[in-house]
Amino acid sequence: MSGPRVNSFFLGNSSGVNFSIILSPVDEETGKLQLANCSGSKRAGDWNLNVTSGMNTSQVTVSLTRNLQLCLPNATDCCARPLCVVETLQVLACHDSVMLAHLLIQAEIYANSSFTGNVSENVTIIPNQVFQPLGSCPCDLTAGACDVRCCCDPECTPDFKQLFNESCFTGVFGGDVNPPFDQLCSSQSMEYTPDWFPFLCVQSSLNNTPFLGYFYHGSTSAPRVPPFKIPLQTSPGKLFTGYRQGDPIMTEENEYFTIPQQSMAGQCVGNAPVAYLQNFDVKCLINLASYKEGLPHDVRINSGTGDFIQQNVIYRTITDMGKFITETESLHTAEVPCQNVTFAEHYTFIWKDKNIERINVTVFLGSLCDGEVLTQRFTVKFLSLKSTNAGELFGTPGYQVGKPVKAANMNASDTFGSLNIWQPAGRGLCTLATYTPVLFGLDSLSGCILEVGINEDCNLLRGNVTEKLNSLIQATHIGKRDNSSYSDLNDWVEIIRLDPFNSDTNVRSGNLKGICPDIPANLNIRIIFADVGAVQGIPQQQILAVQISYSTVIWQFQCGLICENSISFLPITASVQFIKVPAQPSIPMTRFQINYTEFDCNRNDVCWPQLFYPLTRFYTGEPYSQCLAKGLSLAFLVLLAAILSNPWFSKLWNSSLV
């Protein structure tokens, strides 16, 4: 090592492993190192040992604590020679006095040559660099000492130059070569170079360069030259102005931050970008052969302002495997290989305005064996920094797509309500089905199967089906906004219920055995919403009305070869439809537009009102000034043709020739 710090890694489980560092002097007679034992500590001389433990990898850092400055007169804590430290170290990893691994380090560290003394008061006259260069080596800033990375400094010895020979200052400030100037054809860049650059660039050698006399006065800005073609963005680009809803979250490497998500086909995609302010909860089925590790958790995330934040990761071990292992093939236990894999990952993004403030990750690990099918779970939640309630996922007042619709039961003492649809399980029976909340902006259709006998009473069947459907809606009002207050009735809209049976409807009793008419088997939920504004660029959507209706069917017992006293099935469904309406109603049609449809451009191929459309402000194909100039020229030609075609003009022309 040639610097004051060096890092290495210990692979394996570091639980119960003791790390130590010792100084190992070389025996002058034999030239061999002294034997090391496990009785050392994490400090030896001027060296410190720091270990950062992980799951299967531990980072080992060895650092020097002494001062590396060259000695000044009457100074003690400093380096007397340029080659300040020449020592041999050993880092040991022991478990119960048994050495597991050791690392041999040969340290040769040179002193820092930066000048720290008093500055002389003598005034140096610096010539005007526009007309006369300051010197042959501009990076030679310290008299009598070697400046690091200045390869033209005459005070730097060859041994000293070997320390930074590969990282010398380039260009005129290093004194080695002249950098290519912007007008050279070979210096064409991809960012600000216009399309016509190859036609006007200069072919010249670097000896003939204007760089030495090229000085800037004042601030400069990058050129914005309009190209001949629209540039194609091939990379995502860094975000420095904040995220907006739906923007992909970027990493420090200017790449998308990805977490496995479900595609439109229902399959899991491993490299799906995470969108800002969009929650999701997905489950993916994998086995040991198809398991792949995702992004490492040490990847830093772009906060939205150009800064990068580290993920706060907590690792936990799964105790109940039955919730994740859904299928097991019959294999012999002794022959089954197993591997420690990720069972679930829960991400919580703490955000404020357009930036990400913090990321908390909880990772659940467990053992997956060959032949087992694992249900991996990945969740992403966005929590506002200003939110005081953990249930409030967003600080914006309006609804966001994918959030549960807020419901309330104003007729009960506990006003909390629910608006759900079915989530079938097993055979799809209604007795086994669970509930899942209605998500805003997502049309959905769900259902379950009700078992019905051949001797079922039709009135009891209607009541049973109606009770099953009404169990999905435990609410009387729906929140207009996501942050609707339960104490303010103006924040809620009442659910409009169209009951399946009322006084105006004649329900047929159904006297035939095994046939029941007018069964309300379909529940229709229609939610009307509109965009009512935006907060920090995020559209705010508000629910305006909610209607619930029923569709009836005729149920008939399905017989096989003979009708026995067996069980038949009645499928019942619940559908949710979101209808978006304009925030403001459209302008009503005038009587002229209603009566004279031949002037309606939407109903006829010929549109007379748009005869002069290119001269109006609605035409955006060309600049308005060009359209106006072309229109005036056309009007002038039409007027000139009308004058020349008039008979009196020909008489006037003939009389002028006589």
Automatic annotation (TrEMBL):
UniProt-listed GO biological process terms: cilium assembly; protein localization to ciliary transition zone; smoothened signaling pathway
Q: What is this protein called?
A: TECT2 protein
Keywords associated with the record: Cilium biogenesis/degradation, Glycoprotein, Signal
Q: Can the keyword Signal be found in this entry's annotation?
A: yes
Residues in domain Tectonic-1-3?
A: 241-384, 398-581
Q: Name one Pfam family in it.
A: TCTN_DUF1619
Q: Which residues form a coiled coil?
A: none
Q: Which gene encodes it?
A: Tctn2
Family annotation (InterPro entries): TCTN1-3, TCTN1-3_dom, TCTN1-3_N
The Tectonic-1-3 N-terminal domain sits at: 112-221
Subunit structure, briefly? Part of the tectonic-like complex (also named B9 complex).
Name a GO CC annotation attached to this entry.
Answer: MKS complex
* Top-rank lineage group of the source organism: Eukaryota
Similarity field: Belongs to the tectonic family.
Organism of this sequence: Calonectris borealis
